UniProtKB/TrEMBL annotation:
The chain crosses the membrane at residues 43-62, 69-89, 95-112, 119-136, 148-180, 479-498. Keywords: Cell outer membrane, Ion transport, Iron, Iron transport, Membrane, Signal, TonB box, Transmembrane, Transmembrane beta strand, Transmembrane helix, Transport. Belongs to the TonB-dependent receptor family. Gene3D superfamilies: TonB-dependent receptor, beta-barrel domain, TonB-dependent receptor, plug domain. One of its GO terms (cellular component) is cell outer membrane. This is Hydrogenase/urease accessory protein. Its main location: membrane. GO terms for biological process: iron ion transport.
């Protein structure tokens, strides 16, 4: 009866929305020539998507009853006005039309299923979709219309549509009551209608109360673990395995993309370290972002390919317990490479069950993983083995083959514990590096083709780490020592035939085509081309120790930490000239020793209920020694050191909200070869030696709030200055001069769990990067400094008997590719998704799809000169890009026993 009639009416409305969906592309037809408020008033009425969504909000508000009947419409109109302002200002919001369509479907489901949330949750859902509706209105405002009058028009129309929705819901209830009354004797008609109406209202009220009680028991988990009272800044947080396991991941480095605002992409073969972007920095392969595994630094200094080389291909995502991130240079325990921030990855010490996993997919991809743990001698033995193969979509397949292993033994007592960990990784690959866009436009190669088909590399990494810790009520002590042996042989060609051509090497290059666009014989690269090799062989050893005292200053709680860090790198690397990976000349070859000693002190004090501080100071002393070089003038030994103070102030919490003020000094270390180079190895001319350590200055204002139940939001306004962008370019074997710079930006990160089976995350980062000095005729843009990053996703788990997964969106916007700012890259937008089903606790299956929209974006873009056959010897300035992979699929299973 009435309930069934309600269901029939609501299902009809939902089906109507679906039937009208194909027409939505015609919803926004632009101006009709009318001016002012009339134009704005008509806009929502001419689009079926707007019309249905507005009615649905009203119907849902009526279902929820109480104060929400007016709160939801007002919240929608309020947030919609902000979206309209964003549209008028021309702000780029990707996927707005898709989100408008999605809102119709979401509101339809909420109405049909009579889904009810707490008021704050309902307001969030309505406000989220309202922004996109308002954005569409603002984008399509006619040039002749006034902003205020146009906004008043579409706000008034929206409120009227909400009211129509509320009225529709009321009429449905009234008609149901009348229908029931018609089956009763005429003398009882009025009373029966009233009683039926009251029965409907009472039933809905009971249902709502029951569901509200259930929602009150929601437990927030994963990244939304409250950092209130713990974190020292707004840009500090943790990511747990619960978030990682339901995330589609194409390569291990994407684990770092859980750090809000960080992008990990690739411009070469899969075995090479990834390219990273964060806070307006092109971090290259890791410079200025410190990555650690159990406190052991992954960044390699004075590396043959570039300072800070961060190869994370040895990571096994399933073994990660937590990832701690701290952005900014405000933390005393972090020194080298940490100007933009740091991430410390911790592995589990044992697994509840043995794990066997296999995944196969597009482009000859397969991955096998076996992992488990056993109790042994009072402790736990953790072990894991992994193999990966991937060809990719490239014309010259990657043929990437990796073997990865881990062995850890750990023991824990009541107040102390220790562990010993060994890791081993070996990988080989061929690569398609970035290619010139004109080579594709001329038909010389396809989008996934290679200009030099002989690029590639192979690498190895072996490490041993020992760790001991103790904690009681008065103090905590941590000691750790590590040793790493790693090798890399990398072969690349970015300029093709600019340096080694038919003039500079006439005998080797006779087979070159004489005109642009002509096909090339791959055999040419056996004797020609600009390929270079970058061998790197090193031993890295280090020690970290810290002791913390828990004490009081009167009634004030405080803790003081003293720490010491040592690191030594013994390196042999070089830059060679090669054809098809066969060496024929040496540009430079060096033996290096780099040693650092870094004591630090930090105090954290809780002065009262609403004020706590963190103060620290750190000294970093370095010895840079080039003991051998193929150019004797480039040997030498230099020392340098810096003192870096840190400060953090936390105010609150008030209403589950804290406010942060942070500042600190840090540094950017330079390559030991550039520090001691007096003769340019390529040109033979005299050059000035680079500064060993370059000062960085950082500050941040932020807030963190968990006031809305289930939602954790952080907002940070940050600033970072560098005295110089000076870097050593491994591809050229010399230091690239640069200028002082300034970067600042805004980060807004959100993680929301309205129920224990669903989570939403949405992070937005915007930044501006400029050189601080003035160079007439050159410009002050910092090339490849990322400006906008948006990452968002939904995670579902344990629903309908075992389904899990969800979609993810990643967007990084256009950026300047040269100092003038005139050459810019295109934006990159990728949508991926994972869907899995847990058959039993011991067996699950999952499917992943990457680049779901099959977009033809660039993974990375550069602008520089290169030369193709038949072109001018001076080369051609052009865009060089590495494309994102096309849509691809992976299927797999996980067995536990």
């Amino acid at each position: 009866m009435p309930c069934r009639n309600n269901i029939i009416h609501r299902r009809a409305l939902f089906l109507l929305a679906l039937w009208l969906a194909p027409t939505l592309v015609q919803a926004h037809t632009g101006s009709s020539g009318m001016n002012g408020w009339a134009d704005g008033f008509n806009h929502p009425l001419h689009g079926w998507d707007h019309l249905l969504a507005m009615l649905a909000v009203g119907i849902w508000a009526a279902q929820l009853r109480g104060r929400t009947i007016w709160q939801l419409p007002l919240a929608f109109v309020g947030v919609m006005s902000l979206g309209g302002l964003a549209g008028v200002m021309g702000l780029s919001v990707p996927g707005a039309e898709t989100m408008i369509l999605f809102s119709v479907l979401v509101f339809g489901v909420l109405i049909v299923r009579k889904i009810r949330f707490r008021a704050t949750v309902s307001l969030f859902i309505v406000g989220f979709f309202a922004f996109f509706h308002g954005y569409a209105h603002g984008q399509e405002m006619p040039a002749s219309a006034g902003l205020v009058s146009f906004a008043l028009g579409f706000m008034l129309a929206t409120l009227l549509l909400h009211g129509a929705g509320i009225l529709t819901a009321r009429l449905v209830i009234f008609m149901a009551a009348c229908f029931l009354g018609s089956s009763v004797h005429a003398r009882e008609k009025d009373n029966a209608a009233v009683e039926a109406n009251e029965a409907v209202i009472e039933a809905e009220s009971k249902t709502r109360k029951k569901e509200s009680v259930e929602l009150d028991e929601i437990v927030v988990t994963e990244r939304a673990d409250s950092q209130i009272g713990i974190a020292d800044s707004a840009s500090q947080g943790n990511v747990g395995q619960a978030q990682l396991q339901y995330r589609p991941i194409t390569r291990p480095a994407e684990v770092l993309e859980t750090v809000p605002g960080l992008i990990a992409t690739q411009h070469s073969g899969e075995g090479k370290a990834n390219q990273y972007f964060l806070r307006g920095f092109n971090l290259d392969h890791g410079t200025d972002f410190l990555t650690q595994i159990e406190g052991v630094p992954v960044n390699q200094l004075s590396h043959s390919h570039g300072q800070g080389w961060t190869d994370t291909n040895f990571l096994i995502p399933e073994l990660i317990e937590t990832l701690e991130y701290k952005k900014g240079n405000y933390y005393a325990e972090n020194g080298d490479f940490a100007s933009t921030g740091s991430a410390n990855i911790h592995y589990v010490r044992d697994l509840p069950r043995q794990l066997l996993k296999f995944t196969g997919g597009s482009f000859d991809y397969y991955r096998g993983l076996a992992a488990g743990s056993q109790k042994l001698g009072g402790g736990h033995l953790l072990y894991a083995g992994e193999t990966v193969h991937n060809n990719g979509p490239w014309g010259v397949g990657n043929d990437y083959l990796k073997f990865n292993g881990l062995l850890r033994y750990s023991r824990e007592a009541t107040d102390r514990g220790w562990s010993l960990t060994g890791m081993a990784t070996k990988a080989d690959w061929r690569s398609t590096d970035q290619i010139a866009r004109r080579a594709v436009d001329q038909g010389m190669i396809g989008r996934f083709g290679a200009i030099d088909p002989t690029d590639g590399g192979h690498s190895q990494r072996y490490s041993v780490t020992g760790e001991w810790h103790r904690r009681d009520d008065r103090s905590e002590t941590r000691l750790m020592a590590y040793g790493i042996y790693s090798t890399l042989n990398l072969f690349s060609n970015f300029t093709f035939f600019l340096d080694n051509n038919e003039v500079n090497n006439p005998q080797g290059c006779r087979g070159l085509p004489s005109s642009p666009g002509e096909k090339m014989d791959p055999a040419i690269f056996n004797t020609c081309g600009d390929q270079f090799g970058q061998p790197d062989d090193r031993w890295t050893t280090g020690f970290k120790g810290s002791h913390t005292w828990f004490h009081k200053w009167g009634a004030i709680d405080s803790e003081t930490t003293l720490g010491l860090q040592l690191r030594n790198d013994n390196i042999q690397n070089g830059l060679t000239k090669t054809h098809a990976q066969n060496q024929y000349a040496v540009t430079r070859q060096d033996t290096l020793w780099v040693t650092s000693l870094s004591p630090y002190a930090e105090n954290k004090t809780q002065w009262n209920r609403w004020l706590r501080t963190s103060t620290g100071v750190r000294f970093d002393g370095f010895r840079f020694d080039v003991s051998q070089s193929n150019i004797s003038q480039n040997t030498g030994e230099r020392y340098d050191g810096l003192v870096s103070p840190k400060l953090g102030v936390v105010l609150g919490p008030w209403m589950e909200t804290e406010f942060y003020l942070n500042g600190g000094l840090g540094y950017h270390s330079n390559d030991a070869r550039g520090i001691n180079t007096r003769i340019d190895p390529a040109s033979g001319t005299a050059v000035d030696r680079a500064s060993p350590l370059v000062r960085t200055y950082g500050a941040e204002i932020g807030l963190r709030s968990t006031w809305l139940k289930g939602l954790q939001s952080t907002l940070a306004l940050w600033w970072l200055d560098l005295d110089s962008e000076l870097v050593f370019v491994g591809d050229a074997g010399t230091t690239e001069a640069s200028r002082p710079s300034r970067r600042y930006g805004l980060e807004f990160a959100n993680y929301y769990s309205p129920a224990d089976w669903i989570t939403f995350d949405a992070d937005v980062s915007v930044s501006r990067a400029r050189f601080r000095d003035h160079e007439p005729g050159i410009g002050n843009h910092i090339p490849n400094s990322i400006e906008t990053v948006i990452a968002a996703g939904t995670t579902l788990h344990n629903i309908h008997g075992g389904f899990f997964g969800g979609p993810r969106l990643r967007y990084f916007g256009p950026r300047s590719l040269d100092e003038s700012g005139g050459r810019r890259s295109e934006a990159t937008l990728l949508v991926s998704a994972l869907l899995g089903y847990e058959v039993t606790q011991n067996l699950s299956f999952q499917a992943e799809v990457f680049n779901l929209l099959n977009r033809k974006d660039d993974g990375i873009t550069y602008f520089y000169p290169s030369r193709l056959p038949g072109e001018s010897l001076a080369g051609v300035d052009d865009f060089h890009f590495h494309p994102v992979e096309p849509i691809s699929f992976r299927l797999g299973f996980t067995a536990k026993f």
